[in-house]
């Protein structure tokens, strides 16, 4: 595919890294020559220096021949203008990153009116993920499949837990209706076998129905399996979206915000929320505001280091649930702190959505990718395919198929039937299939085969 990306920031660089494969020809438009040189030297892409909202620059980048045009600069309006020009020049599919909350309530109408194929708001999508985590407080992450009939949740094995030293065969005997799809140990993710022995602080990614996962929650749950109070540090765009998604009743919410005007706006717009004007990185202020009495803290300032320190302080105060916004994932690799629980990275969420859309455009008629998530800090991908025609995977027992190493068929949804597959099960046309993979670019269901 011919793909033109405008903007070499966090999202753009992520896309250059993931999409620059033998199947794709990537052209990056970037105004900063230093950024452009760095990305073109790191990845197999072509660079064009200039403003992507310029007609001449888009022609130079061969936008008229593009299958996909992606605008992900920090400026919403430039992204929108660039996508309109790209569409007029002949790009087949256009994607714009749009962050302004004023556009959020009518984004779909804007998209149709401007003729843009897909518009994505990083903060709004990150807020939806945080709302899911609040709904399932035992899970460190929650990814829905098959219209929420099946979920993939992330849980951590605490020290001295009964599962430590047992293998996954023993785990299945305790929880036969769920499946461990991936394990993260010491920061490294892998696809496990039945003989994999579980260790303390392993992070398990488990698939199952909401009802079946309740047993897993009970297995790992603390006393705080329902959140009744939340402390939010930082009152930016992400906080506004989260407050709009949370119920007005049932959860006591306090926000600490340093900007007095923003604090007033939050207080006026959400009268049920207690807003405190102050520096949320001040540990004395956090203690005065009773941080240790909260069930959950959300560290959502605009500075990664501050968010990490706030969460670590909350952990030291025995706050049972902590969610941290981090944009630079390399910081986490340097820290390698297992105490940090749920990490939210808005640009990573948007990049994953864009990659899913691009792969969906690039697949054949045998299967449609309906969902894709990058888990374990992007090391593992989990995808849902709808097998719409008889493909090479159909009609054979899974044990007979030459499935690539590092790929797991985790779930088969066949009408109302939900199947955790064994080697004797098989895939049929019409099935929805959940696949988990590490190290393989899977565009359609047949890509799981050698």
Keywords:
450 residues, alpha/beta, Rossmann fold, Alpha-Beta Plaits, 3 domains, six-stranded parallel sheet, 15 helices, globular
Topology:
Elements: E1 2-6, H1 10-19, E2 25-30, H2 33-42, E3 46-49, H3 55-60, E4 68-71, H4 76-89, E5 93-97, H5 101-104, H6 107-114, E6 118-120, H7 122-135, E7 141-145, E8 150-156, H8 168-174, E9 179-185, E10 188-190, E11 203-208, H9 210-220, E12 229-233, H10 237-245, E13 252-257, H11 260-269, E14 274-277, H12 283-288, E15 296-299, H13 304-316, E16 321-325, H14 329-335, E17 342-344, H15 346-361, E18 367-375, E19 380-387, E20 407-414, E21 417-419, E22 432-437
Summarize the structure in words.
With 450 residues, the protein is an alpha/beta fold. It folds into 3 domains: 2-120, Rossmann fold; 229-344, Rossmann fold (3-Layer(aba) Sandwich); 363-448, Regulator of K+ conductance, C-terminal domain (Alpha-Beta Plaits). Helices cover 32% and strands 26% of the residues. The protein is built from 15 helices and 22 strands. It has helices at 10-19, 33-42, 55-60, 76-89, 101-104, 107-114, 122-135, 168-174, 210-220, 237-245, 260-269, 283-288, 304-316, 329-335, 346-361; strands at 2-6, 25-30, 46-49, 68-71, 93-97, 118-120, 141-145, 150-156, 179-185, 188-190, 203-208, 229-233, 252-257, 274-277, 296-299, 321-325, 342-344, 367-375, 380-387, 407-414, 417-419, 432-437. Strands 3-2-1-4-5-6 form a 6-stranded parallel β-sheet, sandwiched between helices. β12, α10 and β13 form a beta-alpha-beta unit. α1 runs parallel beside α15 and α7 (122-135) crosses α10 (237-245). It is globular, with a radius of gyration of 23 Å. The mean pLDDT is 91.
């Amino acid at each position: 595919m011919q793909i033109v990306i405008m903007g070499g920031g966090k999202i753009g660089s992520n896309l250059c890294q993931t999409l620059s494969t033998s199947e794709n020809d990537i052209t990056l438009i970037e105004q900063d020559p230093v950024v452009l040189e760095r990305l073109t030297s790191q990845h197999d892409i072509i660079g064009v220096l200039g403003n992507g909202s310029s007609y001449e620059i888009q022609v130079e980048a061969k936008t008229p021949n593009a299958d996909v045009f992606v605008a992900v600069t920090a400026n919403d309006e430039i992204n929108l203008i660039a996508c309109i020009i790209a569409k007029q020049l002949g790009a087949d599919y256009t994607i714009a990153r749009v962050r302004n909350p004023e556009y959020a309530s009518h984004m779909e109408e804007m998209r149709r009116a401007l003729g843009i194929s897909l518009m994505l708001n990083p903060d709004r999508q990150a807020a939806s993920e945080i709302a899911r985590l609040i709904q399932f407080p035992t899970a460190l992450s929650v990814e829905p499949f098959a219209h929420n009939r099946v979920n993939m949740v992330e849980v951590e094995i605490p020290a001295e837990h009964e599962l430590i030293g047992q293998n996954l065969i023993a785990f299945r005997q305790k929880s036969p209706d769920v499946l461990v799809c991936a394990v993260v140990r010491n920061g490294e993710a892998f696809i496990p076998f039945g003989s994999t022995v579980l260790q303390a602080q392993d992070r398990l990614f488990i698939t199952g129905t909401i009802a079946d996962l309740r047993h897993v929650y009970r297995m790992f749950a603390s006393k705080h399996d329902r959140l009744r109070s939340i402390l939010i540090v930082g009152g930016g765009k992400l906080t506004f979206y989260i407050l709009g998604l949370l119920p007005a009743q049932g959860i006591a919410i306090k926000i600490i915000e340093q900007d007095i005007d923003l604090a007033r706006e939050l207080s006026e717009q959400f009268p049920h929320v207690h807003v405190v004007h102050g520096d949320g990185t001040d540990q004395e202020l956090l203690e005065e505001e009773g941080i240790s009495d909260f069930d959950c803290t959300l560290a959502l300032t605009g500075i990664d280091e501050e968010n990490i320190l706030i969460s670590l302080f909350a952990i030291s105060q025995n706050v049972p649930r902590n969610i941290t916004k981090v944009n630079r994932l390399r910081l986490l690799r340097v820290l390698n702190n297992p105490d940090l629980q749920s990490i939210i990275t808005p640009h990573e969420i948007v990049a994953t959505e864009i990659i899913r859309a691009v792969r969906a455009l690039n697949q054949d008629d045998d299967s449609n990718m309906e969902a894709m998530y990058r888990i374990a800090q992007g090391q593992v991908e989990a995808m849902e395919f709808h097998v719409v025609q008889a493909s090479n995977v159909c009609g054979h027992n899974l044990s007979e198929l030459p499935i690539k190493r590092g790929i797991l068929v985790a779930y088969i949804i066949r009408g109302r039937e939900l199947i955790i597959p064994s080697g004797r099960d098989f895939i049929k046309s019409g099935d929805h299939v959940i696949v988990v993979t590490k190290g393989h670019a899977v565009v359609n269901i047949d890509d799981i085969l050698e």
